[in-house]
Structures are given as structure tokens and as C-alpha cells.
Amino acid sequence: MNKKMLIIIAAVVLLLVVIGGVVFVFVINKPETEPEIVYLEYRLDEGYSNLADVDSNKIIKYQVTIEYTNADTLALLDKNKTKIVNNIDEIMRITSSEDIDKPNGKQRIRDRIKEMVIEVLDSDEETITDVYIQPFIVQG
Known about the structure:
Blueprint: H1 2-28, E1 40-43, E2 47-50, E3 59-68, H2 73-79, H3 81-93, H4 97-101, H5 105-121, E4 128-139
Antiparallel strand pairs: 1-3, 2-3, 3-4
């Protein structure tokens, strides 16, 4: 009887060790995963501005979309929409068609707008992740 009892106890202990190991490996020691980033978009109305070209009447047509990651940013964007739209217009007015035609000209404008939005919202590049301009048409 003692021998059977010893075998049963050993089997139970072995089973508990195996179960404990499995729980540790799959539940407790679970590697931390990065939280999935959700990108949201805030689309502004279409805009038109004169370009800074002295000898021409060139006009730029554009629509800016701001990409952000924090849902609370939507309220800040709504609150500061007029200031953001005005500042975008000012950025476009000091831009010449030569600036646009340079390598990465459109990207530079996007970067200026992104920096301005971050400044207006007192935010950062993790929250305001990108700015898109579509359409981007120069007429004249």
C-alpha cells in the first residue's frame, strides 16, 4: 500500500509540475506585445491660395488631411480648425511654384504643415503622425 501511495503522490506532483510549467510558459511569461496603433484622419475642406510667384497669377488648389493616433486629438483639431486652416493658407501663400518644383517640394510643404499643426495643438510627432495633401494642383 505504501508503494502504491508513493507512486500516486509522485504522479500527482509530476502532473502539478507539468501544469505549472505550461501555465508559466503560456500565461505568466507571455511576451509583451506592442499595442496596435490606430491611425485616424481629420480632413479639412478644400482650399485655394495664390502662390508667392511675383510675375504670375498662379493659384494652388489643395485639400489637407491630418493623420493622428490619439482619439482625444479630434476635439483639439475641431477647436483649432480655423487657426490651422489660416496657417495652411499662409504657408501656401509664401510658397512659390519654384519651391514646389524642387525635389521633394511637396514633401517640404507637408512637413511645414505638420510642424505647424503640432505647434498649434501643443502636440508631438507620435500623435500627429503625418499630413497628406490630395489634390495638389497648381493652376495658372
